[in-house]
């Protein structure tokens, strides 16, 4: 419970564990070949919605996950005076 609902990004401590990596891999493998419906993107990934609706971002699970992570990294990069692709 604390891993997922803490006020910070403490989940980063668990990403390196094999159990976490396996769980993410299994989930994304199961979702390969599917598209996430726009209403779900709008509700759960609102910062990505306009990019999906505008056709600039594919609504595939892997793409959405990676872009959501990149968005957070862009905030950190901006604070450090650098960029994230």
Descriptive account of the structure:
- The structure is a single chain.
- With 85 residues, the protein is an all-alpha fold.
- It is globular.
- It has helices spanning 2-5, 18-31, 38-44, 46-53, 61-80.
- The protein has one domain (10-80): GI Alpha 1, domain 2-like (Orthogonal Bundle).
- The chain has five helices and no strands.
- The longest helix is centred in the C-terminal third of the chain and has 20 residues, at 61-80.
Task: Offer a few descriptive terms.
85 residues; mainly alpha; GI Alpha 1, domain 2-like; 5 helices
Helix and strand topology:
Blueprint: H1 2-5, H2 18-31, H3 38-44, H4 46-53, H5 61-80
Helix pairs in contact: 3-4
Q: Give helix and strand order, one letter per element, not per position.
A: HHHHH
**Straight-line distance between termini:** 32 Å
Query: Approximately what portion of the residues adopt beta-strand conformation?
Result: under 5%
CATH superfamily: putative tagatose 6-phosphate kinase domain like
Instruction: Characterize the overall form.
Output: globular
How many helices?
5
Low-confidence stretches: none
CATH class: Mainly Alpha
Structural class: mainly alpha
Describe the structure concisely:
Helix content is 62%, strand content 0%. It contains five helices and no strands.
């Amino acid at each position: 419970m604390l891993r997922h609902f803490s006020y910070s990004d403490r989940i980063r401590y668990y990403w390196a564990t094999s159990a976490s990596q396996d769980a993410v891999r299994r989930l994304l493998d199961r979702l390969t070949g599917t598209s996430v419906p726009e209403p779900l993107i709008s509700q759960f990934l609102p910062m990505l919605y306009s990019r999906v609706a505008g056709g600039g971002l594919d609504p595939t699970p892997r793409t959405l996950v990676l872009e959501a992570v990149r968005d957070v990294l862009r905030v950190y990069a901006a604070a450090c005076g650098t960029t994230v692709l």
